[in-house]
What does this fold into?
Amino acid sequence: MVLNDYLTTLKSTLDQHGILLTFSGPFSQEIIEVLGEAIKKHIMSDETIKGNTLNIFSIFIEQTQNIKNYLGRPHFAKESADFHNSGMLIIGKEKEHYFICSGNLSEKNDIKTLVARVDEINAMDKEQKKAAYKTQLKQSRILVDGQPGGAGLGILDIARKATGPIEYSIISKDDRFDYIIFTVYI
It folds into this structure.
């Protein structure tokens, strides 16, 4: 059966790349909670990351909430199922570091703004990130479509916990949307 071959090939590919967990589809609060529990159980059993357990979990939460909140914006309500199912998350381990990779379809203008913010944060040193985080905490939250969001506190928190810069790549899809992928190492 072709599906059996595909499944074993997929499993082999996941193992080769150190991928421990992957999810693709619509992100609901319930799905995030179930995945969160699975991640907690796995990382709690890994003796090599004792000090980073909370960092891994909080970055997972931030990235999945970002996908859920972005794809759930009211002005996207009439978009296709492909759009709403475009969220994806991968958690893996490469040598002594865990990585969390997330992606989803986004409007090109939103990606441009977000990437500029990520580049700005990536250029900061540790102390600058800490100061920017404190400043953002003191300011009122940014609103997007009347909802909290807009690459404020969360992305700064991710950058502070990451062991290197936030990596991203953009895959062109059509005139309106691109697929944005973020990778964070802990």
